């Protein structure tokens, strides 16, 4: 141990550009280190101790990064809050996480301050980046504090709140390991090392999604600890991604399949305009990727497209470009420190090739949903846990995802996986985005409904619906065809690409007892 970790790297080379904000502002590692140190000294002055928590409602960029680096060397839990939440939802997280300080960026001032007021956090512990009425400027906390490393440094952790398909979001809280912060950061780098990613300041990591997502923080933070420059995007834009990759010689990033679909929708001349020769490890996850979309990305970007499947709670699989080409559609094989178990409804292991609920475990990693022992236990099978996904393993141990259990459609007693249908529909050139789910059917229990966001410039019509359905001939058995297609102007997705299916599904189930 001893060569990696942001704090060590910044001391050794303070002039290294550690981060680039969305507006192009560059941040030297030494300046970022000094900021993080001053935040620690300031918050310790308020009485914060190891094990305490802080929350940040801040956009992508160096402000949030400074909070992350402060918490991770002071033994605190840092919770980045989703900036699309409303005041009461923000209040719930600030309160539930027992935050001893709350940082609000002026861009999110209105809902942030509503949240602060409702959470009951004391007003002198609410700090503002920029001008926020009713909050103390961060400068009040940090001005006059020393730049040097705080004494008694110990590793902290992030505590992300799961988006939660049912009820309130839950904080995923891991026990602190008591290690030196740089050593703990160096241990984290196993995650990127599994993809073959190497340390070194010749690398740049592009942050394409909001930093309040676990994987985004995990991959970005770990890349920083390996000496990579973090290049932040403010909001997703396909051509902007290409521009930043060329401008900063980006070597690695973390994306979702929706991003690929939007990149592939760019006109050919735009796609060919940018030099992408620096790309080495473009990693995607979070949703099943349609096989033709993945093939198209591999053809365009070459063998730098890696895939993995994992959960905030720990454990997962990885598919290298080479392995995926041999097993198209797979999300890969288990990590070296992870195990997979596929079981039926009686929690008994299923044979190879048979879909069942995916359980995972990761060596030496424990977690609990904060304050919810029952939920933690409910998702466990001995020391494996599940997030409710359905999938199967082939003879060589490659995992294929079918769908989330909650999204499965049971029609006439047959299990139908919407993701499979979505993947086939997504390939149609006139389809911009798609969601498939079950709606009530008196005779069959559920029937298959597709909601489609047409590609830009394509007007919705009954003829378009017929053309799209017709394209499924010979590719999908008739029993899996949507009974009907509705069109929507814009799909309700979170910025990380996660589809809010329950929002689409709810109106169709009004007045029905959901039998499934």
TrEMBL record:
One of its GO terms (molecular function) is medium-chain fatty acid-CoA ligase activity. Residues 420-498 form the AMP-binding enzyme C-terminal domain. Residues 7-367 form the AMP-dependent synthetase/ligase domain. It comes from the Bacteria. Pfam families: AMP-binding, AMP-binding_C. Coiled coil: none annotated. Residues 140-175 are annotated as: Disordered. Keywords: Ligase. One of its GO terms (biological process) is fatty acid metabolic process. Belongs to the ATP-dependent AMP-binding enzyme family. This is Putative acyl-CoA ligase. The lineage of its organism: Bacteria, Bacillati, Actinomycetota, Actinomycetes, Streptosporangiales.
